[in-house]
Amino acid sequence: MQIESLELFIEVARQGSFAEVARSRDRDASYVSRIISALEKEMGVRLFQRTTRKVALTEPGELFLASVEPLVGALAAAQNEARLISSEPRGHLRLTTSVSFGQQCVVPLLPAFCERFPKISLELIMSDTNLDLVADRVDLAIRLGLRPTGDLISARLMQTRYRVCASPDYLKSSPPLNEPGDLGDHRCLLMPLSGFSSAWRFIEENSTPGQDREYSVDVAGDLFISNALALRDVAVAGLGPALLADWLVRDQLAEKRLVDLFANYRVTPTQFYSGVWLVYPSRSFLAQKVRVAVDFFKEHLGHGQI
């Protein structure tokens, strides 16, 4: 049974005409008729009822169409994917992420991405507003928080853990910060977002499973900054404690420009176990440029927790 015979069968079933299929393929109607007749002979059943005006599927033909059409589609997709693997990725890729994550984690990777995929033109859209991937023609998004819901496809890139940080200079001249409750004695650096500016949630990590204790600590301050990069910088400058994502303060902690105040606690402004997610509109017929971008960011950033 030839794949061309199956493709012709599907086309005739959908168009209801040998002549229309022949015209679309620039062939004689007799050629299409011979292929379908040979397929029917091979199967031993009549697939179409023929009249002078049209052709219509028989009951066996309907059953055969329902079974064979997905298989032919999957085979075509597999053939296309195999061809793409052997060719160099190319095209225009629209990628969006938040301003802070883009600046901190994505921009440093751009030289490596451009070197590996020289025929992909990349448009990086850094915005703290979640764009509509379909309406805004976005190929791939990197989003922060809980797993995205809806019709989009999402894959975890990394886990995010928040840290309460302050500079060594600030700690030398301020009241002690030995436990989360001590934050009430300090003017914290805050983001003007729900959860970030009123109370921070803590879990003391206990070696005994099931014994972790969760509680909330009210925070207050006089400086509100909507950009996480700027919030980190004023914390480094010694203006007070700030709640910051681990991917944002990795270098500052390693260089001792910031101190992780409560290393034995999990802390969050909203929900625990948030993450960074790769999000794209559809898994079906995923363009090669998107597939290689997904693999690239998983390779460079997908190590769970920084």
UniProtKB/TrEMBL annotation:
Residues 1-58 form the HTH lysR-type domain. Pfam families: HTH_1, LysR_substrate. One of its GO terms (molecular function) is DNA binding. PANTHER family: HTH-TYPE TRANSCRIPTIONAL ACTIVATOR TTDR-RELATED, HTH-TYPE TRANSCRIPTIONAL REGULATOR. InterPro entries: LysR-type_TF_proteobact-type (IPR058163), LysR_HTH_N (IPR000847), LysR_subst-bd (IPR005119), WH-like_DNA-bd_sf (IPR036388), WH_DNA-bd_sf (IPR036390). Keywords: DNA-binding, Transcription, Transcription regulation. The lineage of its organism: unclassified sequences, metagenomes, ecological metagenomes. Belongs to the LysR transcriptional regulatory family. This is Transcriptional regulator, LysR family.
